[in-house]
Every structure is written in structure tokens, then in C-alpha cells.
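seq:
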Amino acid sequence: MRVRSLRFHVAWIFLAAVGLVFFLSGGCNGLRKAKFTARAYLRGDGDYDELEANRAGHAPAERTAEALPGYWTDFRGPGRRGVYDETAIRLDWPDEGLPLLWRQPVGPGYGSFTVAEGLAFTLEQRRANEAVTAYDLATGAEVWIHGYAARFDETLSGEGPRATPVYADGSVYNLGTTGELRCLDASNGELRWRRDVLAEEGAQNLKYGLASSPLVVGDVVIAQGARSVRAYERATGEPRWSAFDERMAYASPALARLCGREQLVVFTAERICGLDASSGSILWSHPWKVTYGLSCSQPVFVDERRILLSAGYGIGAALVELERDGDTFTARRVWKNARLKNRFNSSVLHEGHVYGLDEGRLVCLEAATGNRLWKGGRYGYGQVLLTAGHLVISSEDGELALVRATPETYEELARFDGIDGMTCNLPALAHGFLLLRNHEEMACFDARPPGLPGGAR
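struct:
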């Protein structure tokens, strides 16, 4: 057993203190809730000896996966919606779980995977370096690694980068936790250009490090720093525009067409804003202040006028509606309640209903009214994706579950152990492959229907 770091002991002291407060205020149920809440912060350092021994034992890297057209090339998939609709996936999960294609150690990191050219890209810590890594989708073989000197460590959340690299037209764009924005050749990891976002905005890092994934919009890539949102030329890295001079949040920028106009939607520490995608000018804003500035959840675009927001720390959810008069936008709150509190995760929309984790419990809300239709199983600070009218959920404990997305009732169809260790990372789905990782381990499962070419047997 690897020796625990000082961070482990500090975190458990924190756990005991919070547990006492909850015990005094809510009895044994309060203590159980305190333990559940604090667990999400317990992270160890990476086991680099095990990781390096594993990689040393690999055969020379070989790319075997078919280079299918890119689909899951962005954080949370197309449109950052958390929805997979590329191909059919199997919905009759075996009792023992989906077939495992590969499993191996990975460096610490909170990001997810993107997939293109037969490769799965992710961002991880490798001792003193952050590293963008590319793995063969079919076998997990490490095809290339691009490292640079950067290491972020924080008492409660631990070490490692937070964001997910994104792919577009043969390039991988990466924003590291300390502000390194890099454009890499997707085929071999060679550097095309780099920028230092924190240096350019002259700002100190956020308490928990930069966590926003870059966003490709036309011929620019958008990077969210600690006090600004900045656009750079995709081909050269030359600056195009910048917006804001205020503390930003941890959610990633999103692109949406709202009231007939394409715009960026971003969170600062105190508000949600719409920006003109070509200039960065602010079109509208609405107050959205989350405790400690921890707005982590992506907005849910209910339609072209309405956006659902959610946050933990007692904040809850709200529906914001936009109105447009010429070039003037206004935003008003339709409803707000405490029935859905996304903390480190985001919700998904299906047929007018929102499904998400309310401090670890799965709930279904009616988007138009905020009415909660049901509250179901416990998944901790896991993550939720939507596919084929079903929810694919990764739990805080590394389990994978399949739940029917229906407003009628909570119905879990299957659950199995996916990976070991605390897991807050978002799963990824591409070409029928289901990828999951955390600070310690990553794995790929075959979610293709049996009987189809290449599907599970």
C-alpha cells in the first residue's frame, strides 16, 4: 500500500470537523452526509512508479483503431451537451458489466477524453510535468506524449490538471492548470504554438487552478483564464480579442444560438454572460454568484431562449429566459429552487426534462417549471451522460450505471464496477467505446450492440 501523503491526514481532519458540525445539527444522518460531502475532496498524489512500470512494459506504440470521422472531439461531446447520438449502444448490460477492452494506470487529472483519428486524448500529471497524452482507442497503447513543466497542487483537491483537451481539424488544443495554452499536431503531439494565458492577463491563478476546457469557434480557440476570456487564432496563436477583468468561474465556455444570435456563454464568479463570438463584446448578463466562486456546472440550453443553471453549496437551480429587442438582450429569472444542486457535475436535457445529480442523488426536473418529478439512486459526485433515452452515469466510486431517462419514475437498469478509486471525471463515448478515468486508473468498455460488425460478443 502506498504511503499516504500529508494531504490525506489534513483532509481527514477536515472530514472529522465537518462531521462533528453535521452531527450536532442533524444527528447521525447529518454525520453521514458530512462524510459523503467531504470524501469528494480526498485525493492522493499519483503513483508514478506504478504508472512508469506499466508503460515500460508496453510493446512499441502501435495505432490499431480505425480512424473514423471525429465525433466526441469536444468536452462533453458535440455542443458540450453531454449527449451521445453517433451510433446505437447496447442497453442490455450484462450482470458482470460491459466487456472490458483495456485498463491501465493513468497520471492524476480531473479531465475527460476526446477522441479522433483512432486516438483518445487526455491531460494528466507526470511528476513535474503536465502532459497531453494520446492512446490507441482499441488497445490503450500510449501512442504519443507531449509534456511541459507545470504542476498544480492544492490541499483539498490534490494535484493534477483539471481540463480536457479538444480536437479540431488535425490539431489538439489544451489549456493547462497554470495557464499553458498549447496547439499540438494530433498525429504525433508536436508543438505548433503556445501561449501563457495567466501571464498575458497579468493575473494570479484561481484557488483550484484553471479548469475550463478550450473551445474551438470557427478560426479561433477560446481560452478562459483567471480574470478573462481570450480568443486566439487557431492557426498561429495570435490574439484576436479579450473580454472581462473580473474573477472567472470553473465552468467551460459554451457556444449556443440564443434569440437568433450565435454567442458564447460563460460564467464569472458572480454572473453568467453572453458574449458576441466574433468580438467578445458582452451582450447580456445575469447574476449567478456561487459560494467560493465555484460555478462548475455547464449551462443546460433548454431552447433558444431559456437556460437552466445549477450549483451546489446550497445554491440550487434556476431557469433564465432571454428576450431580444434588436441588438439589445435582457435576461430574467423564471424560477429558482433548491431541488437540483450540481456541484462538480452537469445535467442533461431530454424531452423537456432535466436529469442531474443533486448533491449525489439523481433527480428529474421539469425544465419549464422546476418541479421535481422524482429523486432516485445515490451516485455521489459522479457524472451523467445521455444516450438513446437512457442515462449513462459514472459514480463517485468508479461504478458505471444505466438508468432510463423518463419522468415517470427512477429506474436503474444496470450497475457494475468500472475503475478503482474516487472518480469525479466525466466519461466519454465515441464509436460505441465508453471511456472512463480518474486520478489513478483509466479503462475502455465496449458499449456496441452485440451482433453488429465489431460489436461485443
